[in-house]
Amino acid sequence: MVWALSEPPPLPSRSFLVIHASVTGTAVDIAERLARRGRREGWAVTVKGVAEFNQLELLETPLIVFVLPTTGNGAAPPTFLPLWNALLHPSLPPDFLEDLRYAVFALGDSSYGKYNWVGKKMSRRMDSLGATAVVQRGEGDDQNEWGVESTFPGWMDEFYKAIDPLTPAIDGLGQLSISDVPPARIQLDKVTGNTLEVNPTPPPWAFDVRWAKIRDIERTTAPGWYQDVREVELEIEGFAEEQVLYEAGDVLEIRPQNSPEDVDKFLTSIGWTSIADHPYSITARSSDQPLPPHLPSPYVTTLRHLLTHEVDIGCVPRLSFFEWLAAFSGGDMEEKLRHFCSGEGQDDLIEYTNRPRRTINEVMYEFRSAKVPPEYILDLLPPMRARGFSISSSPAAHDGKVDLLVAIVNYRTLMSTPRKGVCTSYIASLSPGDRLPVRFDTSGILRLPAGTPPLIMVGPGTGVAPFRALMEERRRVGAKENLLFFGCRSISQDFHFEKEWKKMVDEGDLTLSVAASRDQDDKIYVQHRISEHSKMIWDYLSRGGLVYLCG
Ligand SMILES: Cc1cc2nc3c(=O)[nH]c(=O)nc-3n(C[C@H](O)[C@H](O)[C@H](O)COP(=O)(O)OP(=O)(O)OC[C@H]3O[C@@H](n4cnc5c(N)ncnc54)[C@H](O)[C@@H]3O)c2cc1C
Ligand SMILES: Cc1cc2nc3c(=O)[nH]c(=O)nc-3n(C[C@H](O)[C@H](O)[C@H](O)COP(=O)(O)O)c2cc1C
C-alpha cells in the first residue's frame, strides 16, 4: 500500500529515540543497528526497551522510532502493554502528539493471521493522535527469504533519507565512514586494591525476580528415548502462606548461565583469557547508551562473570555481530565478514549461520584473528534472555512450589557436534539443592474462564504442561467437563503425566484421548483424534465450551 505522508516539521536537534519491545531479541538488534548507523552519520541516538520508557517522553521527544514485534496471535509483547493502554485512553485529544515525528518498523510473520498487527495498530494510533510519520511503516516478515534482512536495510535507507533534511548536520559530529569503529557502549576501568568487591551473584534481571531451589529434577521419557524431557520441581524461597505467587496457566521465567566450558572457549577465541578475572568497574560512556537497566552503575565485575551471566554466546549470531567483528578484523576475514553484512551476502550468511545453527561461540572461534577490545563486550554480544516455561502445577495444589515439564533441546544439523539449547542445557545441569533466580510471568498468556464451562484442551508433547495446572484447578472447583487431546510418539516412551491423567479419568473428571503417532504403522496425530470426538466437541462448544491449544 502506498500513501502520501504529510511534510514532517524540522527537528530542533540532530537526535532521536528508538524504542523496542522485544520478546526474542530481533527488535533489539534492529534498534541497535538503526542507532549505530545514526551515530555514524552524526545523530545522537538513544535506544531503550519500552519497559524503561517514561510515557512523558512522548511529549518531550521530537522523533521516536518504534520497533515492534507482534507476539502470540496478534498480541502485543507484555512490556508494550502499559504504553499501548495509555495511548488508547479515550480522553486523549486528536492533537495530543502533534509535536511528535515518528517511524514504525514492525516485526512479524505473515504465516500468522494477524500479521504485524502491533506495528500496524501503533501507526494508526500515532496518526490519530496527531503525530507525523517521517517515513512509511517498515515491515519485517519471518517468511521472507532473508527474514527481516529482506526489508530492513532498504527501510533504514528511506528513514535516514527522510530525516536528514529535517536538521542540518552539526559540525564536529559524526559522518564516520563504514570502516570507522563507533565508540564502545561501556568503559572498563581496572579496579586495583580491595576497595570494590565483585559480587558473585548476578543482579536480578527484573525487580520481581525471586530465588528458587531445585527439589527434584527427573527424566520422564524412557531411558534411551530420543528426547530427554524432565519434570522439574522448584521450591520458592521466602514463600509465606496465603501468598499468591501465580495462577494456573502462568509461566515461569528462567535466565540461564553459559557453562564454564563455553565461557573458557569463548575467552580463548577472543583472546581475553589473561584478563578474564580482573575486576573492572563498568560505566556507560554516554547517556545515549546507558548500561542495561538491571545493572548498577558503576558495576564492578569481571569479563568471566559478564560472559557467564549477562550475554548469550550460545545463540545463532545476528547480523550486527558480524558488523562488529568486521570492525576488528583485517584482510580476507574482514572481507568475508563485510560480505555477510551486505545485501548480496544474505544467502551466504543464512547458509553459514541459520541453516547449520552455528553459534556465536563457534563463529568467534572461526574468526579468532579478530582483535576485539573488551570494552566492546556489550556491543558485540546480545543480552542473555530469560526463557519462559509453562507452569504445570496449580498454586492451590502445590503450596510455594512450582512444577515444570522441560524438553531438553538437543538436535543435529550438518555441524559435527549436536546443537544444544542454552537454557535447557543449563536446567539439565542442575541438581536437587541448587538455587536459581526465577520470575513469574503473570501477564495471563493462558487463563481459566470464570465459572465451569466445558473445556477442550489440545496439548502435544510438553505443550500439555499447563493443562496439568488447569486440570488441578478445575478439579478443585468441581468442573468435570474436560476433554484433553494429548499427542506423543509412543505410549511407553513419552506419555507425560500418564498416571495423573489416568487417575483423573478414573475419577470422572477428564475425557482423555491420546494420539501416539508411532505406535502403529499409520501415523496418528491429535487432529485424527479430534475428528473421532466431533460429537462431544460440538456438544461442548454449543454450550459455551472453550478450546485451548498449547505447544
Ligand atoms: C509461553 C511459553 C511457554 C513455554 N513452555 C515451555 C514448556 O512448558 N516446556 C518447554 O520445554 N519449553 C517451553 N517453552 C519453550 C522455552 O521457552 C524455550 O524456548 C525452550 O526450552 C528452548 O530454550 P533453550 O534456551 O534451551 O533453547 P535456545 O538456545 O533458545 O534454542 C532454541 C532454538 O533452537 C532451535 N531448535 C530447537 N529444536 C530444534 C530442532 N529440533 N531443529 C532445528 N532447530 C531447533 C529453534 O530455532 C529454537 O528457537 C515455552 C515458551 C513459551 C514462549
Ligand atoms: C509465540 C510467537 C507468536 C507470534 N505471533 C505472531 C503474530 O500473531 N503475528 C505476527 O505477525 N508475527 C508473530 N510472530 C512473529 C514475531 O513477531 C517475529 O518473529 C518477530 O521478529 C519477533 O521479534 P522479537 O525477536 O524482537 O521478539 C510470533 C512469534 C512467536 C515466537
Automatic annotation (TrEMBL):
A cellular component annotation (GO) from this entry: cytosol
Q: Which domain of life does the protein's organism represent? A: Eukaryota
The answer to keyword NADP applying to this record is yes
Pfam families recorded:
FAD_binding_1, Flavodoxin_1, NAD_binding_1
Give cofactor(s), names only: FAD; FMN
A GO MF term: flavin adenine dinucleotide binding
Cross-referenced InterPro entries: CysJ-like_FAD-binding, FAD-bd_FR_type, Flavdoxin-like, Flavodoxin/NO_synth, Flavoprot_Pyr_Nucl_cyt_Rdtase, Flavoprotein-like_sf, FNR_nucleotide-bd, NADPH_Cyt_P450_Rdtase_alpha
Q: Does the keyword Oxidoreductase apply?
A: yes
Give the record's keywords alphabetically. Answer: FAD, Flavoprotein, FMN, NADP, Oxidoreductase
Start and end of every FAD-binding FR-type domain?
Answer: 207-449
Q: What is this protein called?
A: NADPH-dependent diflavin oxidoreductase 1
Tell me the organism. Leucosporidium creatinivorum
